[in-house]
Amino acid sequence: MRLLSLDLERYGPFSGRRLAFRPDARLHVVLGPNEAGKSTALAAVTDLLFGIEARTRFAFLHEMKTLRLGAEIEAADGRRLAFRRRKGNSGTLVDAADAALPDDALVPFLGGLTRDVFCRAFGLDAASLRQGGREMLTSDGEVGASLFAAASGLRGYHDLQKGLGTEADAIFAPRRSKDRTFYQALDRHEAARRAIRETELRAGDWRALNDEIEAAASRLDAIRDAREAIARERARLERLKRVAPLVAAIDAISAQAEADPDLVEASPDWIDRLGDALSALRAAGAEQARARTALAHASADRDAVTVEAGVIARDQDILERFRGIDRFDKDGVDLTRIQADADRAAADLDRLAIRVGLPDRAALSARQPSDAARARIDALVREGREREATLTRLRRDLAAATAEEADLARAVEAEGVVVDPGPLRAAFKVLAPLREDLARRDALDAAVRHEARLLAGQAARLSPAVTDPAALVDAPLPQPETVARFRTLMEAKERERLRACDALATARKAVAATRTRLLRREAGRPIPSLVDLSALRRERDDLFAPLRAGTTGADPIARYERAVSAADRMADDLALDAARVAEQAADHRRLAAEEEEEAGARASLDEIAAEASQALDDWRAAWAPAGILPLPPAEMAVWLGEAVNLIEGQQVLESRQNEIAALSRRIEACRTPLVDLAARAGVSGLDTLPPALLLARLDDRITELAGLWEAGREAKARLRAAATQRARLGDALGEADAGRTAWAAGWGEAVAAVGLTATASLAEAEGAIEAWRAVPLALDAHDTLARRVAGIRRDRETYAATVAELLAAVAPALAEMAPSAAIRSLHGRLQQARDAQARRTALTRHCDEADRRVEIADADLARAEAALTGHLAGYRPDLGADAIPAIETLQGRLLARARLRADLAARRAELTRAADGLPEASLRDDLVATSPDAIEAALARIAMEDEAHDQEGRVVFADRDRGERRRQDLEGGVGAELAVAQRKAAEAELQVHARQWAVLKLAHLMLGTAIGRHRAGQQDPLLSRAGDLFSGLTGGAFAGLAQEYDEADTPRLTGRRADGGSVPVEGLSEGTRDQLYLALRLAYLQDYAARGEPAPFIGDDLFITFDDARTGHGLEALAAVGGTIQPILFTHHAHVADLARARLGDGVDVVTM
Fold this sequence. Notes:
The protein is an alpha/beta fold. It has a domain at 204-261 and 906-972. The chain is 71% helix and 6% strand. A hairpin with a 5-residue loop joins strand 4 and strand 5. Helix 11 crosses helix 25 (819-872). The two termini are 23 Å apart.
C-alpha cells in the first residue's frame, strides 16, 4: 500500500495542509524545520490508518470532535481509495463526498496490520535505531534473536520474558488448538510416527529393487545396439531406393540434351543477349506507335479549349466582392431579427409604464425612484414579514406550552407511588454470574452437539465406514507397523504381477507376429525345406536299389527318373528361394522359443497370483477381530491415522459432557434465590420455569420497575420546565406586539416614493419595486437595438452600390439580379475562365513533350535494329532484323537445350545430396547388384525385426522406469531413521513443554520458540537480502552477512568483509551496528511485502547520528527497497534532502512542510 497524498485538514497545528507524494518516486523525503509539525505528520499517518485515539494530544488548536484527516492510497494491485478519517468511536471513515464508508474499508490495503505492529515494524527513528543495535549486542549476535528484534521492533525482550506468565494459555490449554506450541509438538510427533510407518524399508527389498533396475538397463543397452545395426542397414537400402529414380532421370535427360546435333553451340551469355536484343526491338516499335498516337490526341485537346479574357482582367475586384457576400447576407438576416427585438423592447417599456401607473414610456425616465428609496422599502418588507412570522410563532408556542403544562400535571397525578428498584438491583447483582454459567453450558452443549455431528460425519466418511465412534475406542485395531509390513508385501507382489503380465503380453504378441509371418509366407507357392529334400533323396535311393541289383523293367526306371527330377527341382528351389527358406526356418525356431517363453510367463503369473491371494487373506485376518473388512494397506494406513484422531475426538467429547453436567447442577442450585427475588419484585408463578427463562423474566421486571421510577422523576421535572416556558413565551409575545406598532409608523412614508399609500400591503410594495427594478435595463436594451438597425442598413446600401458598378463593366446581363446572387454567378464564370486558361497552358506543354517523345522513339527503333543485326553477324550472318520469326525460332531451340543441360546439372546435384557422400559410380554398382524387389523385401524384413526390438524395449523400459520411480520416491522422502529421530525429538519437546507449563515458565518457551522460528524459517532468504543491504549501507566495507556457530552450537550473526574475514556483532562499531539493524529491518519488510500488502515505512530523522557518507548510503538503501514498499523519511536537515537529490536524481521526491 502506498500513500499518494496526506490531507491534514484539522489536526494538531495544521488546517487544510496537503502533502502529495509522487507515485513513481523510490524515496520520499519530507523536509521541514524544527517545530514545523513533522512529528505531528508522523502521528497523523498512524491515526489516519488506525483511527484517532480517544485521548489524543493533537486537539490543542481544533476541537476534539472536529479533528479530521484525509488521504488517497493505492494497493499493490493498482486499486485506489480516497477517504477521510474523523474523530469518533464508530463510522469514522467517509469518502471524498462525506458519504460513510464501512469500518473495514481499509482491510484490503492493510491486511492484518494493527496499530502496535505498524508503529513497531513500519516506523523507526534515530533513537529506536540505536537501541536496536544495542539489543543485538545484548543477545551476543544470536541469529534468531537478531532477526526477531529487527522484525518485531521489540526491545528488552530478555527482561520481558520474565513477566509473561499470564500468557501460559497460549502454549497449553485443555481445548486442542493448532496455534498452541504443545499441540504443535504433538502434531510433529504424530507426523513422525506416520512417516515411520510409511517409509520403513528392508535391505533385501532395496537390493532386489536395484538388481531389477540394473538388469533392465543392461537389456536396454543390448536392444539399443541391435537397433543401431538395423538402422545402418535400413539407411543403406533407403539410400539405394532414393537414388534409383534420380539415376534413371539423369540418363533420360542426357539423351534429350544430345537429340539436336545440328544446332550451333552458343554460350549462355550470347543466348541471353539475343533475347535482350529481340525484346529491345519489339519494345522500341511499340513505343514509337504509342508516341505518335499521344501526339495526335494532345493536339486535338489543346485546340478544343477557349478562354474568357474579360472576366480574367477584373478577377481581383470579383474576388473582393465575393468575400463580402456572407457579411451582406448575414446583415440582411440580422436586420429582420434585430428590428423585431427593437419592437419587442418598445412593447416591454409600454407594459412597464402601465405597471407603475404612468401614461407612456417617455415618462419612465423622469419618474424613476432612487436606489436608496428602493433599498429602504425592501428592508421594511423583510422586517415586516419577520415580525408577522414571529408573532404567529409566539402565539402558537404559547398555546402549546399551556396545553403541555396541563397534560403533564394530569400525568403526574395519575402515576401515583412507584417502588424504588435499588434494593432489587443489589440482590440481583449477586446472582449475575449465573448468566456466565448459563452461557458456558449452552455454548458447551452446542459445541458437544456440533462435535458429535462432526465425529459422526467423520466416521461415516471413513472407508470402511465406522457406525459407532464410541465402540471404536476399545476395538483391537492393528498396529501401524503391521499395516506397513503388509503394505510392503502386497506392493511387492503387485509389482511382480505387473512385470509378469507385461512379460506374458510381450510373449503373446511375439508368438502372434511370428505365426502371422509363417502363414503369410506359406500362402504363396510351397517352400522347400531340407527335410523334404532329404525325404526325396531317400525315395530316390530306394528306387535305385533294385536297379543296382539287376532288376529290369520300364516301370521302376520311370519311377526312379521321376524321383531324380523331383529331388533336382527341390534342390533348384532351395537354391532359388534360399532367403525365404532361411527366414521360414528362423521363424519356426523363434516360434518354438517364444511359445516356451509364453508358457513360463503364464506359470510365473499363476504363482504370483496365488501368493498375492494368500497375502490378501492374511491382511483381512489381521482386521477380523475389529470387525472391519479392510481396503488395500496404503488406504488403511491413512484410515488408521483418521481413526486415531476420531478416538481422540471422542474422548474430548466425553470430557465436555461431564463439564456440562457439573454446570447444570450449579445452575439448578440458584433456582430458589431467584424465585424469592421474583416474589419481592411483585412477580409470581415462576417456580416451574427453567433457570435461564426465570433469570430473564426477573431481569425484565427489575428493568420495568427502574423505567417506571425514572419516568416519574422525569415527568415532575418536565412539569416544572413547562411552567417556566409558558411564562417566558407570554413576555416575548408582548414585546413582539410593541415592535410591530413601531414598524407601521415608518411604512407609509417609505412607500409614497413608489406611488403607494400607507395602507398598501407587503405584496403590493414588492410588486411595485420589482417593476421599477426592470425599467433601467429595458431602456438600455431599446436604445442599443435602435442603433444596431441603423448601422446595418447603411452597410448594405454601400455594398449594393459597388456590386452595381462591377456588373456594369463586366456582365451587364446580371444587373437585374440580387447583388449576392449576381456576384456568385460572376465568381463561377471567373473560376471557369481560370480553369480553361490553366488547362490550355498545360495541354500546350503536353503537345511539345509528345513531339519530343516521337523523335526519341524513332531513334530508339533504329538503334535496336542495328544492335540485333550486329549480334547475329558472328553466328548467323544470313539472318537480319527483317527475319524476326526465324530469329525467334533459333532462340527457342537454344533455350530448350540450355534448360535440359541445367536440369541435368540440378539432377546431378540432387543425386549428390541424396547419396550421403558416396560417389555416383559406387551407387550405380550397388543398383546393378540389388534389384528393387530385393530392396523392398529386405526393408520389410528389418522393419519387422525393429518392431520386435521396439516392443521388447518398451516393456523393459517400463520395468526400469517403474523401479527408478519407486527408488526415487524412497530416496526423496524422509527416511525411517530420520523419522525416528524426529519422533524422539518431538517426545523430548513434549516433556519440556509439560514441565515448564507445570512450573508456570511456558512464557519463556514461547519467546524462545518465536526466536527459533525466525532463525530456522526466515534465516536463509532474509539474511541474503539483509546482507546485500548491509553491503550497500557500509559502502562496500562489508560484502554481506554470515553465521558462525559457537561452542554451544548456537548460530551467531557476523559481518563478512570483502576480503573474506568475519567480524562478530560485538566487534562492530556502534554506527555499523546501527546500519546492520537497519539492514535487517528493511530485509524483513521486503519479506513481508512478498507475502502480504505492506504499509509505508516511516523514518523520523534516521540518519541524525550518521555522517554524510553513511547518510548517502542509507538513502540509497531506502531507495533500493522502494520497489516493494514505500519509504518516507522525515527530516529537518536540508543537507539530507540535497544528498538525496545528488544520489538518487529523479528517484527521490522531496516534499517541503
